[in-house]
Amino acid sequence: MTSVLKIGGSILTDKTRPQCARMDEIERLAREIAAAASDLVLVHGAGSFGHAPAKKYGLPDRFSPEGLRVTHQSVVKLNRLVVEALVEAGLYAVPVHPFSGVLLREGRIEQMPVSPIEEMVKDGLLPVLHGDVAMDKTRQAGIVSGDQLVPYLARALRAEVIAVGTNVDGVLFQGEVLPVISREDLPRIDAHLGKGSGIDVTGGMRGKLLELLELAESGTSSVIFNAGIAGNITRALSGEELGTRVVRSR
Ligand code: IPE
């Protein structure tokens, strides 16, 4: 049984300060993943390593080779920290950089090599992807968020546990966590969806939810949970109910 876990950049970095990693949180993430022992693909957000340079160079709206290079190098730095922490925790973690293989069209993933990732998981490796810049067939430059990678990987790998960890308890509506949400609920709660803290070029909670609602409509449910609370990552990977479950409309 394969799991796809995303941990948002707001957990791993201080999103208000460029290239500011939270090493204690990265190490906790690694320990919690090691404790869960499942066949896993990990995707992490870019946090301030991605959003700050992307914004500085006007990505994705303006094409800038220098902006692409700088932003990619920056998110690779965060990826290295995450991979090293996972290795330290005893896992066979390996980096997989979306920039090297993803092709976008109109900002959406058109191509991405998934077979190598599938084989890695089968053979006991832990592929670690991340939000990244990517080439776009129609727009030259693009950004592929971890939130877009998750449903793509979940479908391609037929994953059974899909968990998206953020710095809030789930989808909040009038101060309460919604335990379950489907596309039908969107009009009612849309105006209340938070924008996310710090600089964010990929849409915060709304962007995340739209990706997962689309995945749910094809029959695969997922959870959005608070990865900032110790133990929650292990719980989510064990399939425990927490946060908000995103399901298909009735
Ligand atoms: C954004 O990735 C990628 C870049 C800005 C280059 P994400 O959207 O997955 O990152 P977080 O989770 O918001 O930090």
List key phrases describing it.
250 residues, Carbamate kinase, binds 3-methylbut-3-enyl trihydrogen diphosphate, alpha/beta, 4-stranded mixed β-sheet, single chain, 23% strand
Structural account:
The chain has helices at residues 9-12, 23-36, 47-56, 65-88, 115-122, 146-157, 186-189, 204-217, 232-237; strands at 2-7, 39-44, 93-95, 103-105, 108-111, 126-130, 132-136, 140-144, 161-166, 172-173, 176-177, 180-181, 222-226, 244-246. It is an alpha/beta fold and 250 residues long. The protein has a domain at 3-160 and 228-243: Carbamate kinase. The strands form 3 sheets. It has an 8-stranded mixed beta sheet, sandwiched between helices. Strand 4 (103-105) and strand 5 (108-111) form a beta hairpin. The protein is globular and about 45 Å long. The structure holds 3-methylbut-3-enyl trihydrogen diphosphate (IPE). 3-methylbut-3-enyl trihydrogen diphosphate binds at residues 8-9, 45-47, 50-51, 54, 71, 75, 131-133, 143, 145-147, 200-202.
